[in-house]
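Our collaborator T.R. sent over the components below with a one-line note: 'Predict the complex.' Nothing else. No constraints on interfaces, no templates requested, no preferences about which chain binds where. So this is a plain run: every listed entity goes in together, and whatever single assembly comes back becomes the starting point for the next discussion.
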Amino acid sequence: MVLNHDQVMAALRTVKDPELHKDLVSLNMVKDVKVAANRVDVHVELTTPACPLKATIQKDVEQAVKRIGAAEVRVRFSAATRGPEQPKEVLPQVKNVIAVGAGKGGVGKSTVAVNLAVGLARHGAAVGLMDGDIYGPSMPTMLGIKGQLPGMRGNKLVPHFVHGIHAVTIGSLVEEDKPLIWRGPMAHGAFKQLLVDNTEWPALDYLVVDLPPGTGDVPLTLCQLLPLTGAVIVATPQQVALDDCIRAAHMFQQLEVPVLGIVENMSYYVDPATGVEHDLFGRGGAEQAAQRLGLAFLGAIPMYPDLRINSDAGTPLANFDEEKNAKLKGVLEAVVQNLAAQVSIRNLRPRGVKLNIV
Ligand SMILES: Nc1ncnc2c1ncn2[C@@H]1O[C@H](COP(=O)(O)OP(=O)(O)OP(=O)(O)O)[C@@H](O)[C@H]1O
Ligand SMILES: [Mg+2]
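Returned assembly:
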């Protein structure tokens, strides 16, 4: 039997993206189909280069096309990150702006923000990182750009390009060790001028924004100012951190910012000598909170001395080194891919979905 193009397209209509719950043809992910005798070539365009379901989609496409009689099926993948459908006035060249934070101080928001940004870029996405913490900017240290000024083009700042990402931090523009005292309205104006109007952000698939701690004026202002696809909440598993996490979820809900998911950080400690996992703070607490709130759980990151060491040294890519840090790489990679999937899911959904917050 000789197959034709229409038969293959009909077969592909039976293949659903397991997370987007629609078929590949309706999702406009089938970019090309070539039929030569009994061999079929299919070009599938993923909605993110960090897609965790590539292998599943490949298997499902092969099965569906073989079922209608193809002897050989070759699937080629490419990726084009999708953004929200509605056009943006602020940062129109950025497909997805993602805020990380709003949790308690010191739970690892900046650490998660950096590793998400670097992790997405490793998959080939164009990624930016905006340090939104005007009071205690961590990025100069975490990215190893302390004391380095960003470039200028005309009267605009050009973000640093480090570890595969474009980054801007107020920390590299002010004197070291001098606290910045900005109050709400001033912070709003300064943020907008500095990080949005006067920074030449390139075209980006994802711009990750590291928020300052808490749910006060500054994080609130930033979330209102930026056209967010959504937010990631970071929490450690103790009850006090979870209470903050719920407050943060409420803040985002009030601002109509979708919560893309919760990351549990410092989830447990792995003894480097024995490999035994010690549960210090009540592992699983953030996952349970996510479930209760009806939010996605993006993953658990253990206490990992190398994560702190690489943050202090400004070498985030070392966290993804398969030889030195296979376990850490694995947990970070899961969080990166789960976030990318949630962004794709969110971009297909209307805004304003209610949380189950009680
Ligand atoms: N999973 C982890 N394992 C080991 N160290 C970690 C881990 N997560 C964060 N740290 C370390 O904990 C410290 C605090 O982390 P980080 O600065 O990311 O927190 P934060 O929530 O951004 O803090 P702030 O509220 O001050 O902005 C840093 O020294 C960081 O390297
Ligand atoms: Mg921080």
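Summary for T.R.: Residues 320 and 326 are 7 Å apart (CA to CA).
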